What we know:
Elements: E1 8-12, H1 17-28, E2 32-37, H2 40-50, E3 56-60, H3 66-80, E4 85-88, H4 103-129, E5 134-139, H5 152-172, E6 177-184, H6 190-198, H7 202-211, H8 221-232, E7 243-246
Parallel strand pairs: 1-2, 1-4, 2-3, 4-5, 5-6, 6-7
Helix pairs in contact: 1-2, 1-8, 3-4, 4-5
Amino acid sequence: MAYWDDKVALVTGAASGIGQATVWRLVNEGASVIALDRNRDGLERTRAEVANDERLMALTVDLRDETGVINAVEQAAKWKGRVDGAVNVAGISPAEELLDSTREDWDELLDINLRGTFLVAREAARVMAGGEGGAIVNVSSVLALVGDPTLVSYSATKGGISAMTRAMAVRLGPQRIRVNAVCPGDVATPLLNNWIEQQSDPAATRAKIASSYPLGYYCEPADIAGVILFLLGPDARCITGANLVVDCGLTVKCY
Ligand SMILES: NC(=O)c1ccc[n+]([C@@H]2O[C@H](COP(=O)([O-])OP(=O)(O)OC[C@H]3O[C@@H](n4cnc5c(N)ncnc54)[C@H](O)[C@@H]3O)[C@@H](O)[C@H]2O)c1
């Protein structure tokens, strides 16, 4: 028997990186997954990767569209008759120079990262509250905890997700809905890998990033997917409101 047999989860940001790895892992652990993303082509790549049409439904939705989110979660709930888990992975992280940033930049980050996470969690909680409860996992970041001068607005969204996670956990506990967050450091997703490949010496750049981590390496998307699976499943039945740092020791390092 697999860790999460016969469960049903929806995953946002499912067309790439951590979201795609999470879909793959959940299906391989026995779950059926509704994969949400605004990137239709990316969702097709996820579908090809998973190669299990019975246990994967892909829905194209932009999280900035509240009606679209409400309809997508409703469709997800109808598919197998219930939703046991919701994983909020979708997000953007554009580099930003604070003094040149605009209100439009801020609004876009807040709309996608924070409001998008809120809307999906709220809609999923409505479904779960009418059933047997469930689990929500939000992907935050170590930047909810420490400062990066090039990602000020992004950090605000992640701080908001971490705080919202705690409050939702308290609100939804009586409905048997657990709400947790994962706070990753660097993860080797396409965004980071492509940036590394563009540097004059990619191998040296990769080694330099890795050397800043006490463990001497940083996470792969599958590492984050594994922690998400743990938080969704029965081994985490006593964990709610947690912000689990998954950063190979980055934020506990003093020197
Ligand atoms: N990669 C890292 O180093 C890292 C570190 C800490 C936290 N995170 C967080 O992990 C999450 C995933 O990161 P990733 O590196 O896998 O990113 P990614 O860019 O590979 O994937 C993000 C996905 O979100 C989707 N998305 C973006 N805006 C959307 C919208 N409005 N509606 C629907 N879908 C939308 C994109 O299409 C994409 O498929 C993000 O929330 C990010 O902030 C990433």
